[in-house]
Design a protein that fits this description.
Blueprint (H helix, E strand, L loop, with lengths): L1 E7 L7 H14 L5 E7 L1 H4 L6 H17 L7 E5 L5 H10 L4 H5 L2 H9 L6 H4 L1 H10 L5 E3 L5 H18 L7 E3 L34 H9 L17 H14 L3 H7 L5 H27 L3 H28 L5
Parallel strand pairs: 1-2, 2-3, 4-5
The chain binds adenosine-5'-tetraphosphate (AQP).
C-alpha cells in the first residue's frame, strides 16, 4: 500500500494554482486501489506570516469542505488539522535541530516571503522546511503531490530524512515528489512571471475556488497578456497567454498543441471568453458541493476521525525518534 501525503495552508481561499498543483494530482492518485491518502490542513505553517484569528478559523473549516468538494474520497483518505496532532511540532523541533541555518536561508520561498514581509519576519518563516519535513516523515509517506514551488522543500525533506537515518539508524522513509506536468506552476494573472499565490496582495492575481463566478470570469478576461495576439505557448516570450493555455489545458484535458491549433485563427478575446466560461463551469460545480459540505455536521466528525488516525500513527513514530535521539527516560 502506497501512502500519499499532502497539505495546504489555510492562509486564504485555495486558488486554481493550489488546485491544479496539489489537489488534482491527489484526486488522480486516489483512483489507484493500492493507495492511502493523508491530507492535512497546514495551519501551523499558515502562522509563519501574520493571520487574523477569525479568518484563520474560517479558512481552516472552508479548506476541509473544499477538499471534499474537489472529490476527496473518504474511503481512501484521512483528513486532519495539523495543529490537532502535536507530533508535528514534536518532530518539527527535532528536524530543526538537524537542519543548518545556511541551508534554510537558501530556500527560495524564505527569500521571497522575507522580501514581501516589510516588518517582523518570524523565525517560523525560516524554519518552515523542517516542520514540513516533519509533516511528511512522521507518516512514512511514499509520495507527496506538490506544485513546482515546493520541490525545493521536498528536496530538503529528503536530505533531512537521510541525514537522520545516517546519524541514528534507519528511521524514516525517504519520500518522492509527485508533480504533474500540466498545472504544476500556475502563474499570477497580473504578473505571469510570478506564481499565483492565495496571499497575493492583489486579488486580481488569482482565482480562488470560492470566487464569485462573474468576478472570476472578469479576472480571466483581464489577465495580462502580450500585444502580438498569437495564441502560442512560449513561456519566455509570452508568459501570460502560456499561463492561460496551461489553465485551459489542465481543466479540460485538451493538450496545449491541440488548443494552439483550435485557436490559430482566433484572437485573445475569443480565447479568454472561452476560458472564462470553462473556469465558471468548473467553479460552479465545486461551489455547489462546497455549500453542501460546509453546512454538513459530518465535517467535524471527519476531522475528528482523521485526527485520531493520524495521531495513532504519528505518536508511535515520535516515541521511536525520541528513543533514538536519547530524549526523556524511555
Ligand atoms: N501557483 C501554483 N501552481 C501550482 N501549484 C501551486 N501550489 C501553490 N501555488 C501553486 C501548490 O499548492 C500546495 C499548497 O501550497 P501551500 O498553501 O501550502 O503553500 P504555497 O505553495 O505557499 O501556496 P500559496 O498559494 O502561494 O500560499 P501562500 O500565498 O499562503 O504562500 C503546494 O503543494 C504547492 O506546491
Amino acid at each position: 500500500m502506497k501512502r500519499v501525503l499532502t497539505g495546504i495552508q489555510p492562509s486564504g481561499h485555495i486558488t486554481l494554482g493550489n488546485y491544479l498543483g496539489a489537489i488534482r494530482p491527489l484526486i488522480q492518485l486516489q483512483q489507484d486501489d493500492d493507495v492511502e491518502l493523508l491530507v492535512f490542513i497546514a495551519d501551523l505553517h499558515a502562522i509563519t506570516v501574520p493571520q487574523d484569528r477569525q479568518a484563520l478559523k474560517k479558512n481552516i473549516k472552508e479548506l476541509a469542505a473544499l477538499y471534499l468538494a474537489c472529490g476527496l474520497d473518504l474511503n481512501k483518505a484521512h483528513m486532519f488539522i495539523q495543529s490537532e496532532v502535536p507530533c508535528h511540532n514534536q518532530l518539527g523541533w527535532v528536524m530543526e535541530c538537524n537542519s543548518y541555518i545556511g541551508e534554510l536561508e537558501r530556500m527560495t520561498q524564505f527569500k521571497d516571503k522575507k522580501q514581501k514581509q516589510t516588518e517582523g519576519i518570524s523565525a517560523g518563516l525560516l524554519t518552515y522546511p523542517p516542520l514540513m519535513a516533519a509533516d511528511i516523515l512522521l507518516y512514512d509517506a511514499d509520495l507527496v503531490p506538490v506544485g513546482e514551488d515546493q520541490k525545493q522543500h521536498l528536496e530538503i525533506t529528503r536530505n533531512l530524512a537521510e541525514r537522520f537515518n545516517n546519524k541514528y539508524s534507519e528511521t524514516f522513509k525517504v519520500p518522492e515528489p509527485y508533480i504533474l506536468k500540466n498545472g504544476a506552476r500556475i502563474m499570477s494573472l497580473v504578473d505571469p512571471t510570478k506564481k499565483m499565490s492565495k496571499s497575493d496582495a492583489n486579488p486580481k492575481a488569482y482565482i480562488t475556488l470560492l470566487d464569485d463566478i462573474n468576478i472570476a470570469k472578469k479576472k480571466i478576461k483581464s489577465a495580462v497578456t502580450d500585444s502580438d495576439g498569437n495564441i502560442k505557448y512560449d513561456v519566455i516570450n509570452k508568459p501570460g497567454i502560456s499561463n492561460l493555455l496551461t489553465i485551459y489545458s489542465a481543466l479540460t484535458n485538451i493538450s496545449i498543441s491541440e488548443l494552439e491549433t483550435k485557436y490559430q485563427d482566433s484572437n485573445y478575446q475569443t480565447f479568454k471568453e472561452d476560458l472564462a466560461n470553462i473556469v465558471a463551469c468548473f467553479l460552479t460545480k465545486i461551489q455547489s458541493k462546497f455549500n453542501y459540505y460546509i453546512n454538513d455536521s459530518e465535517l467535524d466528525l471527519v476531522l475528528n476521525s482523521g485526527r485520531d488516525y493520524a495521531y495513532h500513527y504519528a505518536s508511535r513514530k515520535i516515541q521511536k525518534v525520541y528513543r533514538k535521539v536519547g530524549l526523556g527516560r524511555n
